[in-house]
Amino acid sequence: MTRTIPQRLSWSQRLSYAAPAFALAAVGLPIFIYIPKFYTDVVGVNVSVFGAVFLAVRTFDAVTDPLMGVLSDRTRFQWGRRRPYIAYGSIPLGIAILMLYAPPSHLGQFGATIWLIISVFLLFSAWTAVTVPYESLGLELSEEYDERTTILGIREALLFLGTLLAVASPPAIATLMGFADTHQGERDRYFWFAAVYGPAVIITCWTCAIFVRERTNPVRQVESITAKSAAHVLKNRPFRILLLSYTVSAFGSTLPATLLPYYVTYVLKSDKIPVYLLSYFVTGVVCLPFWVRLSNKLGKKTTWLFAMAVNTLPFSLVPLLRAGDELGYGLIVVACGLAAAAVVAIPSSMQADVLDYDEMMTGQRREGQYMGLWSISKKMSAALGVGLALPILDSVGYVPNMPQSPQVLSVLTLLYVAVPVVCNVIAIFLALPYPIDRKEHAEIRQTIRNQRNR
Description:
Blueprint: H1 11-24, H2 29-43, H3 47-74, H4 83-101, H5 108-139, H6 145-177, H7 183-211, H8 227-235, H9 237-267, H10 273-298, H11 300-312, H12 326-337, H13 342-362, H14 367-395, H15 406-431, H16 438-452
């Protein structure tokens, strides 16, 4: 007996699915905000070496992510295709979080580098084992056009709330526990951060695996990775457009996340990094329901393009600021935050529609294979942000914990503002030909139903 996919999920099902995103936020943006500066300025890893390590591990992901996707698609356990990996993969992931955020002291530069390499490779390998099946599961929970936006919008809202809490946690821990603003104080705050988030990842992933059910509709067995299967993916024109546009936009979005602590500290000369981050994420979460409703009215592509424009235009004003312009920078951050969650949530919903197009063309459901490629896009965008920006700063004379030269400040501002703005403008134009709207999706779903009933 097979389980028919419901058009709409209950709120308990939606929240059970979205729960891991809240805890998994600790492995997302906070790593790119806190870990580079923590390891280069406190632990003692050379800034260029740090960038090279992150770029290497993301290159490794380019192999493991699609393999994990196909493995998940082809798995036939009693628990289903996705949930065993979500549950059991969370255990090494929780351990890796503790390793990365709590390195032993007095390692020396070589020892610190080796520790970074081991912990980062373990972290992102476990991250792949969890998130590729987890995000694949989200794409198959409903076949209804707007319900997908709701499900994945809730997931992204909890991801943003989790990111908000994760970003705020280190300074909050330092204040509540009285840690000094010293290198040891930084180590202490990150240790307690990891001690909370490691178990939280495991608990929320098991919650999802236990309470969320997978599709069991009969579809043709997913083939292994071959030239033929790769060709089918590349023939999916809506997917090519969506992936390329999202990749360019993601690279533009990752650079500010990585460089924000450097910009605020050395250019703006402010100590209010947590305030700016909180303002950005709170605004994004509060405004997300508006964007979901707008998507239901205007369609996903139009809403996504509008959101990217709103997220980009205010940021282009940052070069006009000078040291001490804290209020002006705060207003820009809030303005960009109006669409911060939408630029992530809307394309997540569009992924599911693209997979319907693939099923119509091939008769297969390959969420894992597609999510593996999507995951590569996200990870490589982030890795390039760290792997290119930090060595560039190093090459122009960046010195940790010291006043920076005018050349360093100019290059830092260029990387922080100009590159992301240009990337987002390019991404908007790349997304314009995306063809699947509400009417087109309804026709695709009808074709799939006819194929299944033959």
